[in-house]
Write a structure and sequence with these properties.
Layout lengths: L4 E5 L3 H13 L3 E5 L2 H10 L4 E5 L7 H11 L4 E7 L3 H9 L4 E5 L3 H25 L16 H13 L6 E4 L6 H10 L8 E5 L5 H9 E2 L11 E2 L1 H4 L4 E5 L6 H13 L1 E3 L6 E3 L3 E6 L3 H6 L5 H7 L2 E4 L10 H11 L1 H4 L3 E2 L1 H9 L5 H15 L4 E2 L21 H15 L8 H20 L4 H8 L3 H10 L8
Helix pairs in contact: 2-3, 5-6, 13-16, 18-19, 19-20
């Protein structure tokens, strides 16, 4: 039976009745209302896991209601229902935080399937959130902590494909969490209670990899003292994860492809056909398309693995998530290494580092810093990282206003002891001067064009350039 609380808001009596009956029949707890005002009241009074909203309703329209619900119930998944003529509006709703949309007319089965996917994604998101607070769970989704839009897309994709048996190819740099995502896909699949078996094509010598995959019979080669089961056999009924599949030798790629196609294989040195039932997950940091062109990776194997492709972002592409990840790792190791806090200067240094090793490297750095920070506070000296880019120290996804505010807070803090500091004029001057220099540089010293861009007259521009000591001919 399904599990979850669902709110349906639609002014079409027939559709509302069908949805309510269908979701109740599937085991959900359902509340159905016919206008936006009532829907908002219900959402405020009780928590819902999934909310289905029609775009056009009496009272409060769907888009307005979406914004209010996201503010009050940010953990609820919202699905927009729309007529064919308003699909563009539905896409706008998704950009505002909706999980997905249903285009009318739709089948009940389609709505039920989307609800299952949305609730699966929500459970994954909740598990990640609980891990951030240091709670112990079955899986450690450390690399999946984050609010960046690319990570939200990762959560959504996991929710959509976990329940099926399709092969998934995970792509991204080393340390971005590809194995973590593979474990999440297994955990939320129908195979969750069965084995999850990983094999790394990069970590095992080529001469041993075939035996590692398929197993071997006693006497198959010199050191084969007894029969040994391979990873594919051990994963029967569950999932097998091929890490760094791009490092697999071409001759072994042929044998793996045959096994996946026939869903059967023979142990090395054996003749018995071993049947297998596994879900295939693979990962690589290599450019497989380029490798196919040079003959280093088989095209047919690529298409067998690449049914669904999921790209994980590098840590430097989501710098805004670094503070969340840091807090997660501080909580994770607090029990064994002691509680620690991180100084703002140290956090700035972490945010400015390039992180070639991504989340894995960040976790190792935090562990070491916690060991070194015997006084309880992690400072920059405790961080074993290389040069930091000053430009990258500001979050890549921060707005201009946020960047300016951060710098102004530092200035205001520095003037805390002054009773009068003419702060307004000082701040305006600090912002105005780089603005004037940037515009003069852009217009190559053309004062008429610069004044137009700034929205001031030319005499005012000349006066301000003189006040700030800017050479108008240096643009």
């Amino acid at each position: 039976m399904a599990d979850g609380r669902i709110l349906i808001a639609d002014d079409e009596d027939g559709l509302r009745w069908v949805l309510e009956k269908g979701f109740r029949g599937a085991g959900y707890q359902v509340t159905a209302v016919k206008d936006g005002t009532t829907a908002l009241r219900e959402a405020e009074e009780q928590p819902f896991d999934l909310i289905l909203l029609d775009i056009r309703m009496p009272g409060i329209d769907g888009l307005t209601l979406l914004g209010r619900i996201r503010g009050k119930r940010p953990d609820a998944q919202v699905v927009i229902m729309t007529a064919h003529g308003t699909v563009e509006t539905a896409i706008q709703a998704m950009q505002q935080g909706a999980y997905d949309y249903l285009a009318k007319p739709f089948d009940l089965d389609e709505a039920l399937l989307l609800a299952e996917r949305a609730l699966t994604a929500r459970r994954l998101s909740q598990e990640v959130t609980s891990l951030k607070t240091g709670l112990k769970e079955v899986w450690e989704f450390g690399a999946l902590v984050g609010r960046h839009p690319t990570m939200q897309e990762v959560y959504k994709t996991i929710g959509r494909v976990a329940a099926s048996d399709v092969s998934v190819l995970l792509r991204g740099e080393s340390g971005t969490g590809k194995e973590v995502v593979a474990r999440a896909l297994h955990h939320y699949s129908r195979r969750a209670g069965r084995p999850f078996v990983g094999v790394s094509a990069a970590a095992i010598p080529a001469t041993l990899l075939e035996s590692e995959l398929f197993g071997h019979e006693k006497g198959a080669f010199t050191d084969a003292k007894e029969r040994r089961l391979g990873k594919l056999e051990l994963a029967h009924g569950g999932s097998v994860f091929f890490d760094e599949i791009g490092d697999m030798p071409p001759e072994l790629q042929v044998k793996l492809l045959r096994a996946l196609q026939e869903r059967a294989f023979e142990r090395v040195g054996g003749h018995e056909l071993i049947r297998m039932d596994v879900r295939v997950l693979a990962a690589t940091h290599r450019d497989l398309e380029a490798m196919m062109k040079t003959g280093r990776f088989r095209e047919d194997l690529f298409y067998r693995l690449n049914v669904v492709s999921l790209l994980l972002p590098s840590l430097r592409e989501r710098r805004g998530d670094i503070p969340l990840l840091v807090e997660h790792f501080l909580s994770k190791y607090a029990e064994t290494l002691g509680e620690r806090v991180i100084a703002p200067e140290a956090m700035d240094r972490l945010a400015g580092y390039e992180w070639p090793g991504n989340v894995r490297e960040l976790e190792n750095v935090i562990q070491r810093a916690m060991v070194m920070a015997s006084g309880g506070v992690i400072v920059p000296e405790h961080l074993p990282i290389g040069p930091v880019s000053a430009a990258a120290g500001v979050e890549a996804d921060a707005s201009l206003g946020e960047i300016i505010e951060k710098k102004m807070i530092e200035c205001v803090r520095g003037l805390r002891g002054h009773t009068s500091a003419n702060l307004h004029s000082l701040m305006v001057g600090l912002v105005e001067k780089p603005l004037l220099r940037a515009v003069m540089r852009e217009t190559k010293g053309n004062q008429v064009r610069a004044a137009q861009l700034l929205g001031i007259n030319r005499n005012t521009l000349r006066k301000k350039l003189k006040e700030h000591g800017i050479d108008p001919d240096a643009g």
